[in-house]
Design a protein that fits this description.
about 375 residues, alpha/beta, 4-stranded antiparallel sheet
């Protein structure tokens, strides 16, 4: 693939600025006068300008540029950066063509073991991010963070893209998790649909009351999609549907760190930022830049091999007076994170992961004789 033909360079107004010697900008490669070599690269930042899936999105074309300006000025974090900014992805002649371009670029990079970080654009573009996995012949799990559940039957693309993902054929979605939705913004029928499909959903109040318990859900994701409207407007006013309630900027950064640390995760996107609605100091762009910084910090703090038969893990077998009679758990000696085994009896054309992330709380429940809800839901999905 000739990557250069799909991209426009990073705006000169950004690259020509003066940055401190220890700034993020001075430790990455970027598309400026020449297109960067991606050999040995681990993370690729991709700006999105497509806006046709959402009305009143005129300034969305500048979203990636505004985010970059804030990100580039941040200090370099831990790790030996192998990061490239490929510039802004050129839009297609139609919204569908833009989604196809995102799919093609995403698939190409993921197969090269380069994790794409999509910034800017409307939230419906995560459909293209999801389609990047279609040709990989495996089931994938997706996590979305959004104040709403975008499954409106007759809605515009930004209101219905989640439904498109769930109903897409061929179906390669093993699990869908929706975090931080706000009950007064979501039709109860959509929650019923999620439950019938055994999909995970955590409303904002429940998430906040037990924040650590969402980490295994994030750790189970192959891809993560974050709508900036999930963050309260006091911290992130730069969204057309910004809400007075929502995640704090701090909580959003913690979720992004969880995502970065997930060895399984292979693509990440932050969508929905519109500079027009931001304050005069581009506060929302600063929040998103910090979220990306924490994601990268998490990425360079990955510790687990996911080789559960290796000496990196301790195996625990818990006996129960029920069916199942035993549940097998694994604990990482490096990160102290937990997983549990889900038995299966059938095989199909997809590779299935039968060891799923869990928490210490799940292990404690099993020890007390209870079957963890996470175990039950995972088995229902497998069968």
């Amino acid at each position: 693939m000739n990557l250069k033909s799909f991209f426009d360079p990073v705006a000169e107004e950004i690259t020509s600025q003066k940055y401190a010697h220890n700034s993020f900008f001075n430790y990455i490669h970027y598309y400026g006068e020449t297109f960067p070599d991606i050999k040995g690269i681990q993370l690729a930042i991709i700006g999105l300008k497509e806006k046709r899936g959402m009305p009143q999105a005129d300034t969305i074309e500048r979203a990636a540029t505004e985010i970059r300006e804030k990100l580039y000025h941040l200090k370099k974090g831990e790790g030996l950066y192998k990061i490239v900014d490929l510039g802004d992805l050129r839009i297609g002649k139609s919204l569908q063509e833009s989604l196809e371009i995102i799919r093609a670029i995403g698939e190409f990079l993921i197969k090269k073991q380069i994790l794409p970080i999509f910034i800017g654009g409307s939230h419906d573009l995560d459909y293209g991010q999801y389609l990047s996995y279609q040709g990989m012949k495996k089931l994938v799990s997706m996590v979305t963070i959004d104040a709403k559940i975008d499954m409106e039957e007759d809605g515009l693309p930004y209101q219905s893209h989640t439904q498109n993902i769930i109903l897409h054929q061929p179906n390669f979605l093993f699990n869908y998790t929706h975090l931080a939705y706000q009950s007064f913004l979501v039709d109860k029928d959509l929650i019923n649909v999620m439950e019938k499909l055994y999909f995970d959903h955590i409303r904002l109040g429940n998430l906040r009351s037990n924040f650590k318990e969402i980490e295994p859900l994030v750790r189970n994701a192959d891809l993560l999609s974050f709508d900036v409207a999930a963050i309260q407007s006091a911290d992130a006013p730069g969204a057309a549907d910004a809400q007075p309630f929502g995640l704090t900027g701090e909580e959003a950064c913690q979720i992004c760190r969880f995502a970065g640390m997930n060895e399984k995760l292979s693509s990440f996107g932050v969508y929905g930022y519109q500079p027009y609605y931001d304050d005069t100091r581009n506060k929302t762009a600063s929040v998103i830049a910090t979220m990306i910084w924490y994601f990268i910090e998490g990425f360079y703090d990955r510790k687990d091999s996911l080789s559960f038969k290796s000496n990196d893990y301790t195996k625990y077998t818990v006996s129960l007076d029920s069916n199942p009679s035993v549940i097998v758990f694994y604990k990482s000696k490096r990160s102290e994170k937990w997983w549990m085994e889900i038995p299966q009896n059938d095989k199909d054309r997809f590779d299935r992961t039968t060891i799923i992330p869990c928490s210490y709380k799940d292990y404690q429940m099993a020890q007390s004789g209870e079957i963890p809800e996470r175990w039950i839901n995972a088995q229902l999905k497998l069968f």
